[in-house]
Specification:
Length: 384
C-alpha cells in the first residue's frame, strides 16, 4: 500500500524523521564528509568554554538568589540556585576528571547530553524567575528576568558550538518569563517582554549563523584536503598521498608491499578514440582497482596511466598477492565507450619489505624495474 493510500504510515514516517532530526546535534544540513570532524570540533570548543559557562550560570543564580532573598518561601529561595550551581559544579568537575570524547559517536552523545542539561537548567531558571516575578515586591519584580535573561544570552554565546543546546536553553528560560510578562496589563512590562523575545530571536539567529559558518569552513577545508591528496580525474590518492601512506606504514612498523602498475595499449586507445575516451578508461581502471584491492591501504594514480597500490604484508601477504593477480584479468575486460569496446592490459611490478628491505627508495625502484620487466615480457608473449 502506498503512502497516498495509507496516510497514517506517511505521518508516522514524518514523525520518526522529525524525532531523528531532533536527536541530531546539528541545526542545519551537514555533509557526510565533514560530519565526524564537526562533532569532534564542537566538543573541543564546548570543553574550552565550559569554565566560563559554568561560572556565568552559577554567578547569575547566586546573584538572583540574593536579589529576591526574603520574598519567596525558603525552599523556593534555596532549591533552584542549589540545583543550578550544583549542576554547573558537577559538569565542570566531570569535564576535568574525564578525558574528552575519542570518537565521533561519543562526541555526539556528549552534545545530546549537553542539550538535555541545558533544557533542564533552562526550565528550572524559567520557573524560578516566574515565581520571583509573582512574589517579589513591585519595585523588584524586574530583577529576576534581568538576571535570568542576561544569563540565558551569555550561556547561548558560550554554547555557539552546541547550537541546539543554546537554543533550547534560551527557549526554556525565556519563554515562561515572556508569557508571564505579556499577561501584565502594564504596557511597559509588555514592551520589555517583547524586547526579551526579540533579543532571544536575534541571539538564536547568531547561533545558527555561527554554526553554518563552521560547517562551511569545515566543508572548504575538506575540499582543500581532498584536492591536496587525491587525483582530480579518478578520485584515487595522488603520488603525495601514496608516499605519505608508505612512510606512515614504515613508521609504525608495518611491512609494506608495493605494487606499481602501468596500462598496456593505453596510448593507442587514447590516439584512436580521443582523450575523452582515455579519461573514461582511466576512471574505469580506478573503479576496478577499488573493487579488487579491498585490503589496500592506498590505491593511487601516480600520473598518466601509472597506478600504485600499497598493502601491509604483515596483515595478509597472500591475500594481497591474490588481489594483485586479479587485477590483470579484471582490467583486461573491455571498456565500453559509446558503441565501441576498448581493450587495454596492465603490467605490474611488486616489491616487499620482506624481500627488498624497508627503504622507500629501494621499494619504489625495485617495483618500477619489475614493472618494466613485466611489460617487456608481455610484449614478447604478445609478439610470439
Amino acid at each position: 500500500m502506498s503512502s497516498e493510500t495509507n496516510p497514517g504510515g506517511a505521518i508516522a514516517r514524518h514523525w520518526r524523521a522529525f524525532a531523528l532530526s531532533w536527536r541530531s546535534p546539528f541545526t542545519a544540513p551537514v555533509p557526510d564528509a565533514v560530519c565526524d570532524s564537526l562533532l569532534m570540533l564542537q566538543v573541543a570548543r564546548l570543553q574550552a568554554t565550559l569554565p566560563r559557562l559554568c561560572a556565568c550560570i552559577g554567578a547569575a543564580a547566586i546573584a538572583m538568589a540574593l536579589a529576591v532573598w526574603g520574598d519567596l518561601p525558603l525552599w523556593q529561595q534555596l532549591v533552584p540556585p542549589l540545583v543550578i550551581v550544583g549542576t554547573c559544579l558537577a559538569v565542570l568537575l566531570r569535564s576535568r576528571l574525564r578525558a574528552g570524547p575519542a570518537t565521533p559517536a561519543s562526541a555526539r552523545r556528549q552534545l545530546n547530553t549537553t542539550m538535555l542539561v541545558a533544557i533542564g537548567l533552562g526550565a528550572v531558571a524559567g520557573w524560578w524567575c516566574v515565581n520571583a516575578f509573582n512574589e517579589t515586591e513591585r519595585y523588584y519584580c524586574m530583577v529576576a528576568p534581568v538576571f535570568i535573561g542576561i544569563a540565558a544570552l551569555v550561556s547561548a554565546t558560550c554554547l555557539l558550538c552546541a547550537p541546539r543546546a543554546a537554543i533550547a536553553a534560551m527557549v526554556m528560560t525565556v519563554a515562561p518569563i515572556a508569557v508571564k510578562m505579556m499577561s501584565y496589563p502594564n504596557l511597559g512590562v509588555r514592551a520589555m517582554a517583547a524586547m526579551i523575545v526579540l533579543i532571544t530571536l536575534l541571539q538564536g539567529d547568531v547561533v545558527l549563523a555561527k554554526f553554518r559558518e563552521t560547517v562551511a569552513m569545515l566543508s572548504l577545508q575538506h575540499e582543500l584536503d581532498m584536492l591536496a591528496k587525491s587525483d582530480g580525474l579518478t578520485g584515487l590518492d595522488n603520488r603525495r598521498a601514496f608516499m605519505r601512506a608508505l612512510d606512515a606504514l614504515l613508521a609504525r612498523g608495518g611491512t609494506p608491499l608495493v605494487a606499481l602498475a602501468d596500462l598496456d595499449g593505453f596510448k593507442l586507445a587514447n590516439d584512436t578514440f580521443g582523450h575523452h575516451a582515455g579519461d573514461e578508461i582511466l576512471i574505469g581502471v580506478a573503479q576496478r582497482l577499488r573493487t579488487v584491492a579491498v585490503t589496500a591501504l592506498s590505491v593511487a594514480r601516480l600520473g598518466g596511466d601509472e597506478f600504485a597500490l600499497l598493502f601491509d604484508a604483515s596483515r595478509g601477504a597472500e591475500q594481497a598477492h591474490g588481489e594483485i593477480a586479479a587485477l590483470r584479468s579484471l582490467v583486461a575486460l573491455p571498456f565500453a565507450y559509446g558503441t565501441s569496446a576498448i581493450a587495454v592490459g596492465i603490467s605490474i611490478g611488486t616489491a616487499s619489505a620482506c624481500d627488498d628491505g624497508a627503504d622507500v627508495v629501494a621499494l619504489m625502484t625495485r617495483a618500477d624495474r619489475r614493472l618494466y620487466a613485466d611489460k617487456a615480457a608481455r610484449r614478447l608473449n604478445k609478439a610470439a
